[in-house]
Amino acid sequence: MGLRQLSFFAVLLLAPRAWATTWDEPWQDEVLRKADTLVKAEVLANDGKSINLKVVETLAGAQISEKATVEGFSLLRLTSFSPGADETKFAFKKGQFYYFLLTKQKDGKTWAVATPTAGYARVEDGTVYATYRHSFHQALVPRELYETTMKAIFLKTHGKDVDADALRKTLLPILKQAPQGAPKDAEEKDQAKRFFEQHAALETLAYFALADDLKIIEPFLKCDSYHVQISAVRAVGGINSREARERLLAFLEGDGNGFAKVMAVWALKRQNARDCLPKLKELERKASGDRVGFGGNLMDPRVGTHFPGSVKSAIEDLVAEWSRPEAPATPKAETPDRPTGR
Q1: What is the pTM of this model?
Q2: 155: which of 118, 160, 310, 325 fits an S-S bond (Cβ 3.0–4.6 Å)?
Q3: Yes or no: is domain 163-182+189-324 CATH 1.10.3470?
Q4: Chain segment 279-290, per-residue pLDDT in tens
């Protein structure tokens, strides 16, 4: 497949057409956290509303039988709906292999995928159409790299042990290469390979970064490619240190990409870095109000995905949230200890 088919880095799985039904697409982190299992499977049958799978391997999470049925969606939040529209039909091809992040249905027998466009990754000739941050932004990565990284991220998000040392032996050689932006020439196959692999490595590092990794990430923060900047900022956000927070604030003050700056704001929020509030108030006054977003086709069904309208609005939202008095803790009722569900 030529790079000219990859449209500014995003690999859009669905052909553009007039969509009457739209939804708020979940980020991959939510998809992973809500999934019960990560499997590789072949599609045996698809009638549009349910698919029959032959499970080849359970990579992480709950074991699943060799034959499984997927019906419905676990994270589909509709933002518009047209009766009779077929946007939420399964588009999986019979005989095709996919990796699925599945959630068990209440009946205990069937499974659900996140949305019509999230919670799975197609496999073709040893290459995976992979999602690491959001389905709008996909990467083509080797099967081995996908399995190593996605399994590790799944386990991490579910509080399970991960051999981080072994994982870093995979990631660090990729990140020690010079940062590679998105190639514009379809013949630049080596550059494309490095670009996608570095994307996967940075997005994985966001879950496993150590304090000393800041110097490894630094060259990627300075790369001209906005997709590289986005992943680099997310990787810095995985480092819970004063130095990392100062670097995120410096990025917000610099000339970086607007989308990446929103990621920096969200990273500070995840870390509950309230000591940064005075600096954020300062940045709020001079932050850009230029529109930011995923871009892509306006007729895409994922157009309902929530995202701040600008860097300024992202900072304003966080400043407003942190400026409100924190609600006092609710006293715990004195009740006998008893087991609780998930």
Answers
A1: 0.89
A2: 160
A3: no
A4: 999 999 999 999
